[in-house]
Amino acid sequence: MPPFILLPLRKINFWKIRRPGWQAAGAVVLSLLAGCVSTPPPRVPLADLPPSQVDRATRNLRVFDAAWSLVADHHYDPKLQGVDWPAAGVKYGKEAAAATDKKSLYATINTMLGLLQDSHTHALTPEQATEHHTQVRERTGFNMERIDGRWAVAEVLPGSPAEAGGVTPGWLVLARNGVPLGDRSDFRPGEGEIATWEFLDRDDRTVKVPLAARPLSTKPRQLERELTGGFLYLRFDGFDGPDRRWLSDELKEHRAAPGVVLDLRRNPGGETLSLGITVGEFFDRSVDCGTFITRAGRRSVKNSWQFGSAHYAGRVAVLIDNATASAAEIFSAVLQDHGRATIVGRKSAGAVLASWFYTLPDGGELQLSREDYVRPKGERLEGHGIEPDVTVPFTLADLRAGRDPDIEAALAVLQSPAAVPAAR
User: Fold this and answer.
1) Which residues contact 412 (CB under 8 A, 6 or more apart)?
2) Where are the domains of the chain?
3) Which residue among 120, 213, 300, 347 is the one 20 to 30 A from 205 at the CA level?
4) Residue 10 pLDDT more than 80?
5) Other C-beta atoms within 10 Å of 206: how many?
6) For 174-180, what is the mean pLDDT?
7) Res 415 pLDDT > 80
8) What local confidence, expressed as pLDDT, does residue 40 receive?
9) In this predicted model, which residue has the larger pLDDT, 52 or 248?
10) pLDDT tens column, 187-239
11) CATH number of the domain at 136-217, please?
12) Which positions ≥6 away from 237 have C-beta within 8 Å?
């Protein structure tokens, strides 16, 4: 499972609910679709397997076949990026049949899905699906970032084992249980699992910290503070109901602030409905939020939702980085295209597709891209990302010194006479 840079545009893709009950009805339709695939998967022979393995292989293939068929029938690209999908079904179906546990089964499914080079198509194990819905999973409580070829602690979660163990942003991460970290790192500890992490602190002293994983919330966080000059800093880590209501309340409370810094770094996105409402907070009229394109080529232009808008009129700077994804990218692109905000930081993830979630036979889920997206000025974002108006290098030295050059650059932009003007 990729890091949930990664909470995608979710399964309900109604931008505006035109009548009561549509959102619930949409959920029912999607549930039914999961059981109504029409393209039969390739047959994988089980005759060569020992009798003791046939039952497990049959169960594995039931999950694999459901994922394969849903992609064949509903992926946004009818050509599936040029992938020979039947051949992939045969090759990876054999591997799926031979899988000895859920981890290896879903690894096989995701290797096949990786052929699509699609940021929003991915399979979640039953355990991961539960974590996704409950927004709770086993964690030690620190987030790492790859900077200047080194792993560094970018953030420590409040109340986490990492905070209790004294782990601090800016520490370099060297090893886990004596094994040096490689270029990729995606550890998923089990309940109560204890791992000894080796760090270099800010004084380059080696520190070994045993950390026991425990259930921690993965719900988006919201932070607010006043910056120099009366400017407002707002960070929110998702696009959902609580996030949009919090943001609206903050903007209404601080209408007089001359400008706002919106921190969308590491924001993985969320619902299209919340996206449309959030865009509307910064305009006094409905604006074009881009176009979604279906498998059949139908194009649907979406507009912001102004009902209940704060109509915030101050200047706006938006912080992005390579983990800004999905709805967070669309939001940034819309404000950039309409000349409403200055985008500051580093190029975004380029992970922008509208996706649905389908339940698989064993309780796992398939996240499946159903629509492509084009920003208001007509450019496709998937695989390309957003180029900031002001590019800010972020170095390991900055992190270890406790500096945030992105916020410094954003403040300079907001204070400049040449800044993007207030709402008009």
Assistant:
1) none
2) 22-134, 136-217, 222-354+371-415
3) 213
4) no
5) 10
6) 93
7) yes
8) 84
9) 248
10) 788 888 899 999 999 999 999 999 999 998 888 889 999 999 999 999 999 99
11) 2.30.42.10
12) 220, 221, 222, 243, 266, 267, 268
Q: Alpha-carbon distance 121 to 217, whole Å? A: 24
Task: State yes or no: pLDDT of 45 exceeds 50.
Answer: yes
CA-atom Rg of the chain in angstroms:
23
Q: Which of 171, 226, 232, 229 is nearest to 203 (CA)?
A: 171
Length of the chain: 424
pLDDT of residue 73: 96
pLDDT digits (tens, 9 = 90+) for 349-396: 999 999 999 999 999 999 999 999 999 999 999 999 999 999 999 899
**Cα–Cα nearest to 12, from 23, 3, 21, 20:** 23
The encoded tokens of residue 368 equal 């499946």
Q: Name the fold adopted by 22-134.
A: Transcription Regulator spoIIAA (3.30.750)
User: What is the rounded CA–CA span in Å between residue 281 and residue 65?
Assistant: 44
CA 211 to chain centre: 26
d(CA 333, CA 339) in angstroms, rounded, equals 10
Q: Kindly report the three-state secondary structure assignment for every residue of the chain.
A: CCCCCCCCECCCCCCCCCCCCHHHHHHHHHHHHCCCCCCCCCCCCCCCCCHHHHHHHHHHHHHHHHHHHHHHHHCCCCCHHHCCHHHHHHHHHHHHHHCCCHHHHHHHHHHHHHCCCCCCCEEECHHHHHHHHHCEEEECCEEEEEECCEEEEEEECCCCHHHHCCCCCCCEEEEECCEECCCCCCCCCCCCCEEEEEEECCCCCEEEEEEECEEEECCCCEEEEECHHHCEEEEECCECHHHHHHHHHHHHHCCCCCEEEEECCCCCCECHHHHHHHHHCCCCCCCEEEEEEECCCCEEEEECCCCCCCCCCCEEEEEECCCCCCHHHHHHHHHHHCCCCEEEECCCCCCCCEEEEEECCCCCEEEEEEEEEECCCCCECCCCCCCCCEECCCCHHHHHCCCCHHHHHHHHHHHCCCCCCCCC
